[in-house]
Structure formats: C-alpha cells, structure tokens
Amino acid sequence: MIKMLEMPIRGLAKTSALIGGLVLLAVMVMTVISVAGLSLNKLGRFLKKSYEVEIAPLLAIGPIPGETELIEVGMAFIIFAFMPIVTLNRGHASVEILTNAFSATINRLIDLVADLLLLAAAGYLGYRHYLGTLDKYANGETTWILQFPLWWGYAAALFGAVAFVIIAAFCVLRSFSHLVHGTSRQASEIIH
Q1: Which is it for the CA torsion 82, 169, 174, 2, positive or negative?
Q2: Taking the domains of the chain in order of start, what are their residue ranges?
Q3: Closest to 148 in 3D by CA, of 65, 76, 81, 75
C-alpha cells in the first residue's frame, strides 16, 4: 500500500513545493521592483531639491503600493507550501546524540513517534488555520492599503496546510510499515 501511495504523495509534495517556489520568485521580483522604484523616486527628489533639476519620470516612479501586504500573504503561502516536501523527505533538523547508540528497531520506533507528533502538530495547525480562514471570511476584514479580503491569503495558504496534513499522515503510515517490516529508514534531515 505504501508503494502505491508513494507516487501521488510525492507528486502532491512536489507540486506544492513548485507552486511555493513560483510564489517565492514572484515575491522576490516584486520586492526588487518596489525597492528599485523607491530608490529611483528618492533619487529624483534629491536631484530636484539639490540641483533644481526635475526629472519627471523618476518622480513618477515609486514603491509598489501594498507591497508589504502582498509579501505577508505570499510568505504565509510559501511556508505552508514547502512543509509537505520537507516532511516527506525528512528534511527537518534532527538531534541524534543518543539515538545512534540505539538499535535499528528502536530508531524506527522513534521515527514513528516523531511522525505521529508531527501529524498531530500538522493537524492542529491545519485545523486552526481553517478556523482562521472561516473567521476572516465571516468578518469581511480587508488589508489596509490594497483593500483585498484577508481570507484570500488564508485560503491560499490552506492548500499547503492540507497538503502538510496529508503528507504527515502518509509519513506515519510509512514509518509504521518500516517498523513492522524491519526495513531501513531514509533520512535527509540535517543532523546536529
């Protein structure tokens, strides 16, 4: 059963990470454009004030309105979008001071317990995020500058939160299978 689920689960994790990467790229480009626009506007004001030279195009340029709001929404989505691939690949930091001395079976049991705890955390985060999305939708809150509904950002990040829960559940099944069958675990976590 684990082998059968591996491909679609890996596809979900990769798709989520790919979308998160595209949003991250868009946020980075937007930030560069906004900072450049602000810098050019300041340069135009400096030239006008200091040298009485008016460069109208520089004064017309400025930062992207609502850039910080877009970054906040984008970063929330990005973080949730990367959690599934990190979880699937066991990319979380791991401290293995004592576990190296334990047997392979004990380590597989520790992996199962860790995955169960991660599933509980993912489920709690996903549930609370879902409630937050419903709350923002019901309140009709909007952002300060752009005036777009806050629930849009929450709903977008909910995609990654749901994928995180699904993949955390798969990891529990995978760890249980490794424990039952005595197979070795694959880890890519950073070991400290």
Answers
A1: negative
A2: 2-181
A3: 65
**Which DSSP symbol is given to 64?**
P
* Both tokens assigned to 181: 């069958």
Q: What is the DSSP-derived secondary structure letter of residue 62?
A: -
CA distance 72 to 136: 15
92 close to 168: Cβ distance less than 8 angstroms? no
If pLDDT is split at 50, 70 and 90, which confidence band does 185 have? low
**CA contacts within 13 A on the Cβ side of 84:** 32
Q: How far apart (Å, rounded) are the C-alpha atoms in residues 17 and 79?
A: 9
User: According to the model, what pLDDT value does residue 192 have?
Assistant: 41
| 191 pLDDT more than 50 | no
Query: What is the rounded CA–CA span in Å between residue 189 and residue 192?
Result: 9
Residues with Cβ within 8 Å of 73's Cβ and at least 6 positions away in sequence, in order, are 152, 153, 156, 157
Give the confidence band of 60 by pLDDT, cuts at 50, 70, 90: confident
CA dist., res. 132 & res. 125, Å (int): 10
Is 157 in contact with 76 (CB distance < 8 Å)?
yes
